[in-house]
């Protein structure tokens, strides 16, 4: 169903090729899409990053946050996608299973994680659009990621979705 915000939230804010060159991963405001470059008519996967934002689109538009962009990149072995979000959160997405795990950055050295189940994402009780993880990077040879929020960046070793700080 199209509405006033349909084109804004469907605007691509980040895009990257997987290392094997077979897929393109793209980040829209609320979704990540995985495309096969041999068949670009429809995405292979459409993974909702934050379904709860649908109810907040008017407020996000009034504050110009609906135009925020979040980078996206894949791991060197094409197994994982990383992208940012609000509330100092970032998401690791498993390419083969579609598993979406959300992590929250904090300075206490204890990263909070939770599984995001499609269609059943927990509602956002307090949305902080100033604390956003808009820049992410995956190491070209290792399962290590760098994520940035505000004036800080964090480096994590990723191994089967267990983060070691």
In words, what does this structure look like?
The structure is a single chain. The chain is mostly beta strands and 165 residues long. The chain has a single domain (6-164), classed as 7 Propeller (Methylamine Dehydrogenase, Chain H), CATH 2.130.10. The chain has two helices and 13 strands, in the order H-E-E-E-E-H-E-E-E-E-E-E-E-E-E. It has helices at 6-9, 57-62; strands at residues 14-17, 23-27, 31-36, 45-48, 72-74, 80-84, 89-94, 100-104, 112-116, 135-138, 144-149, 152-159, 162-164. The protein has a five-stranded antiparallel beta sheet, with no helix packed on it. The model is unreliable at 161-165 (pLDDT under 50).
Describe the structure in brief.
The chain has 165 residues and is mainly β. It has helices spanning 6-9, 57-62, and strands spanning 14-17, 23-27, 31-36, 45-48, 72-74, 80-84, 89-94, 100-104, 112-116, 135-138, 144-149, 152-159, 162-164.
CATH superfamily: YVTN repeat-like/Quinoprotein amine dehydrogenase
Number of domains: 1
What is the element string, with H for helices and E for strands? Answer: HEEEEHEEEEEEEEE
Given the C-alpha coordinates, what overall shape results?
globular
User: What is the alpha-carbon Rg in Å?
Assistant: 15 Å
Helical percent range? under 10%
Task: Give the class from helix and strand content and strand pairing.
Answer: mainly beta
**Low-confidence runs:** 161-165
The separation of the N and C termini measures 42 Å
The CATH class turns out to be: Mainly Beta
- What is the residue-averaged pLDDT? 83
Total helices: the number is 2
Tell me the major beta sheet: 5 strands, antiparallel
Identify the strand order in the major beta sheet.
Answer: 5-6-7-8-9
By CATH, the architecture is named 7 Propeller
Number of strands: 13
Topology-level CATH name? Methylamine Dehydrogenase, Chain H
Beta-strand level of the residues, as a percent range? 35-45%
